[in-house]
Amino acid sequence: MYLDSIEGLTPRKKIRVRNYPNTSDVSYKLETKISSVEGRHKIAKKISNDYFKKIKFEGLFDSKYGVCMPLLNVIYEREYLKKDDIRITIDTDITYNIHNNEVTKKDENIIVELKTSKNKDIDDIFEK
Fold this sequence. Notes:
Elements: H1 2-7, E1 12-19, E2 28-36, E3 39-47, H2 49-58, E4 60-62, E5 66-68, E6 72-83, E7 86-98, E8 105-107, E9 111-115, H3 122-127
Antiparallel strand pairs: 1-2, 2-3, 4-5, 6-7, 7-8, 7-9
């Protein structure tokens, strides 16, 4: 999946399990982000803690990539901002560790992501 993404191949996908531990909804979600010639979309479904544990130890079968095993755990704090149809996420306190490895790497960078419609004028974004 990583190499497909780096090469910009389509169709491709990214599979991850996500949760939001500091919110009222602490459930796990299995997300599949799909990029194709038609565009991008995401499929997300809630999964049980037991199913999450199964994925961690046995992997998840994908018809294109075969058995996919967890590789990386990423933990971060996220702040959301919104203005009209422009969304901004700011990620801080980012830490990484290889799955099933106690070594943790702290990232001092701050990641800012701007999300808006594909046809948005860049000057309009900066004005807002």
